[in-house]
Fold:
Amino acid sequence: MMSLHLATVIALLGAQQPVTRAQAVTAALARGARGALGRADTTAARGGVRSARAFPNPTLAASYTKDLPRYHAAIDLPLDLPWLRGARIGAAESARDATRLGFAFERAAIRFDVETTYTNALAAARLADLSRRTALDADSLLRIAELRRAVGDVSELDVRLAAVNAGQQENVAVADSLVALETLLSLQLQMGLAGDEPTIVLADSLAPPAGGEPPEGRALLPIAAAEASLRSADRSLAFSRRSRFAPNLELGFDTGDPSSPTPHALLPVVGFSLPLPLLNWSGGEVMRAAAERDRAAAQLDLTRRETTAAVVRARRNLAAARSRLGRAEGLVESANQVASMSLRAYSEGAVALASVLEAQRNAREIVARYIGDLAAADAAARVVRWLTADPDEP
Structure:
């Protein structure tokens, strides 16, 4: 008989609201902290572009002197020359593009994590179901051994061996059921739900990954983001060098000369100022910008090599996983049939108990390996889709 502990775990797993894989991803993107941080970063980057496009505010100065004329007013207007404005805006726009592409890759990573956890939860639930069925078969085998002992067909050794096997299979079933429960709760946490008790049930099924992989040659998000960061660093360096000679235009008037025939007349004042880099050539700022440019270039080279290698490795792992899955598919049905036939043959006295136990153990290992191959093939396909994600994917 199945223990009360295992029955309780099974009751917990017969959970609440059905949730598909797509719904789990949508919930994680909407409620997860990683998505919120990415949205804040992209908003800040858009704000940076808006600030870069804004023209600098003028400065109003007013003064009174005893010298004639006594009243002075001037507006100091920084000249936002095209070579300064273009470099500043270009740096901000490239930084925004890098942030946007980085957030798109982060969204793809969130989608990959949730979908992989969903797949692992499906595999764990299926493995737990397999363990429960194996435990039930072990109970049936124990009852058959007891019946055959009652009629003197087998010895006490068969009964004790069947009892040991039944206890082991029940322990395995309890452990696998707890793993399935923990994996389901982990998925709930990723969705932004409570993780203390199950509130969802998985609506999708565990199936071999579909074909239709993204074509090779597509622009990869990590590389595109690194390229945008390098463009931003280049333009920031150009702006740092050019801003040492940022001129100002001064417009104003003087008035209040009692000796003049028109004491209240406004006397125009026009001036032009240019900073003289005698004491400070902004060497530190230029050096920092150049270092950031060099770092961005090195990061681009590293990202290009690592990402390309990761995509090639992911495609290779996917091909290997599909090959393993294809070989395992044909063994599952045969193994289950052998286990069922051996159990029936033992009940009829045609085979020994050891043969039945061996057949059941082989069947469980083959089915468990097939479930693992299903999950591995699905994960490999999702790694490929993650690394080759489209920036416009919702």
